[in-house]
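Box S1 | Example of a co-folding query
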Amino acid sequence: MSSINYAEKIPNNVNLATDRTLQRALEHWQPHFLQWWGEMGPTDFQKADVYLRTAVSVDADGWAQYGAVKMPDYRWGIFLADPAANRAIGFGDAMGKPAWQQVPGEYRSTLRRLIVTQGDTEPASVEQQRLLGHSCPSLYDLRNLFQINVEEGRHLWAMVYLLHAYFGRDGREEAEELLARHSGDSDKPRILTTFNEPISDWLSLFCFTYFTDRDGKYQLKSLAESAFDPLSRTCRFMLTEEAHHMFVGETGLSRVVKRTLEVMKELGTDDPSRIRAHGAVDLPLLQKYLNFWCSSSLDLFGSEISSNSAANFANGLKGRPDESQYDDHVLRSSTFKMHTPSGTEDVPMLNALNEVMRESYLKDCEIGLKRWNRTIERAGHAFRLTLPSSRFRRSIGAWAGQPVNPEGKTISKEEHEKNLWQWIPSEADRSFVHSLMQRVIEPGKMAGWIAPPERGINNLPVEHQYVKLQ
Ligand SMILES: [Fe+2]
Ligand SMILES: [Fe+2]
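Box S1 (continued) | Returned holo structure for fe (ii) ion
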């Protein structure tokens, strides 16, 4: 186990002190990061004491320490999972050869682009969520939001370390650019569309952490397979932190469902207008939010048929999540049955990897829905939450711009236009959800639209004062 040196300005387990040039470059970037945090991070809570976990080792058990921290004092650092001895490339044409400790010249720009694209999403999500603290449904939730925010900040550090350590001047310039683009900015937006969508209510936050952080999980898992070993080790450790973000999404949405069912029981109705009048989220409204964020996140996997994904796999840059679960790791002779608007065709498997990943992602997304539906069923209601078809509301790939309903059926443009606001949140839906977002900051108390969590953080009671506001 490599322990982390907290005596240093930048906590790390990469022996930063032995590389003075790199250390100086990162120490030069550090104040720029802190300035970005001050300007673009959570608004108005920088003096609050937040009960946060901080990574203190990369050991599987006991890697984190908990305690009250003011966010600007958080120890953002550089942590890589321990190296696997004699690690070999696990897929692609160079399978079985030793993993790379340096960037091969011919893959330099592609690897840099993969790292920058991943890196860009991390600060983007902090920017998207920066106003949410003001409308938190509880101190418990407020703490979870800030935990996610500081960890996305650390994920930015993880990518910036790779850029600085392995990509020379280009890498340093990219690191500056990661702080210069901003979510939703008309001149310099973030790279991927989903990360420019505003997240101005907590229902969206829970959907985002359920669907979009889960896309992050799949991206990190595929990069964790990379032949470029420092990238693999970086991503493996990021996944440890990422799990909590999806936990927040899944339990957050569970608590919304639970509360809605309580209100339905109390009122003896499933009439959406009465449920709304009582200050809760009716299930059809929740379905619209799921449709919106799921379809938006599906675009993040890229085009159905992609020569980039084929090259990235063949060259060993990016594998499939959990590559070892497959039998064939070269994929030169298999095909995939791809459904596109022009029919079904057999596509070389290498060119279909985005779709392969999207399908396994959707299976993972199903798990939460099954759980929520069981609760709904047990409460005696016929309503079921579903995932939209991967053809619905796509902006990228074969189905981009196609008039398709959430069940995946192609319909006329008119019908699509007429029904769209039955499927995704309308202005009126959004303003209703906003009206629910009243902040609750008494320890242990919850807003009326969400049930309390089953347990607190790190064995503390739910009533614990997770954030001390100053
Ligand atoms: Fe992240
Ligand atoms: Fe995340």
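Residues 122, 152, 155, 216, 242 surround fe (ii) ion (ligand 1) (CB under 6 Å). Residues 229-267 form the longest helix (39 residues).
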